[in-house]
Specification:
Elements lengths: L13 H20 L4 H4 L11 H20 L25 H21 L6 E4 L4 E4 H27 L5
Antiparallel strand pairs: 1-2
Helix pairs in contact: 1-3, 1-5, 3-4, 3-5
C-alpha cells in the first residue's frame, strides 16, 4: 500500500491549514519508512549516531502522546517506552519492529486527531507539565509541525543511507 500525502490547501481556515500541514508531515514520515524491512528500519546510517527511522517513528509517537493527550487532554499517562519520562528511550529501536512502532504511532495519531477535532477552538488551553506552562492547541499544532519537519529532514538522510532513496 502506498502512502498518500494530503495536498495542503492554498486557501483555507487557519485550523484546516494547520490540520492538513500536520497530516502532510505525518504522511511524509510514513512515506520515508515505506517498503523497508524491520532490519532496514533499524539501520543506523550515520554512526556514531544511533538514530534510525524506526526510532523516529517511536519518538513521534511519544511527541503526539505528550502534546495532545498529556498537555491538551490532561490525561495522566506515562510515555509509551519509558516510565521515567526519558524521551530518549524511544530512539532505541534496536529490538523494535515495524508493527510495534507503527501500531503505537498510528494509535497516538488517531487519538491526537480526536482531541484536536473535539476541541472548541485553537484557543483551547492545556498544560505542559515539563514546562510548567499553559499552551494553546494552536501552539501544540504548530509545535508538532515543527517537530515532524525537523525529524523528516533526519528521515531523508536516514532513508538515503539505507537504500539510496531520495526526494519527496
Amino acid at each position: 500500500m502506498s502512502v498518500e500525502r494530503p495536498d495542503p490547501p492554498l486557501i483555507a481556515s487557519e485550523r484546516e491549514m494547520l490540520r492538513v500541514f500536520l497530516d502532510f508531515h505525518r504522511s511524509t514520515l510514513a512515506m520515508k519508512c515505506e517498503g523497508l524491512t524491520d532490519d532496514q528500519l533499524r539501520e543506523r546510517s550515520m554512526p556514531p549516531s544511533t538514530l534510525t527511522l524506526l526510532g523516529l517513528v517511536r519518538h513521534m509517537a511519544e511527541v503526539e502522546r505528550t502534546w495532545f493527550r498529556r498537555a491538551i487532554a490532561g490525561e495522566d499517562i506515562p510515555l509509551v517506552w519509558s516510565d521515567e519520562f526519558d524521551f530518549q528511550a524511544a530512539y532505541d529501536a534496536s529490538s523494535s519492529t515495524r508493527s510495534e512502532a507503527f501500531d503505537a504511532w498510528e494509535s497516538e495519531v488517531a487519538r491526537s486527531r480526536q482531541i484536536e477535532s473535539g476541541a472548541e477552538s485553537l484557543e483551547v488551553l492545556g498544560y505542559q507539565p515539563r514546562w510548567k506552562e499553559h499552551v494553546s492547541l494552536r501552539f501544540v499544532m504548530l509545535h508538532l509541525i515543527h517537530e515532524y519537519a525537523r525529524h523528516n529532514g533526519h528521515a531523508d538522510f536516514l532513508r538515503e543511507g539505507v537504500d539510496g532513496t531520495v526526494g519527496a
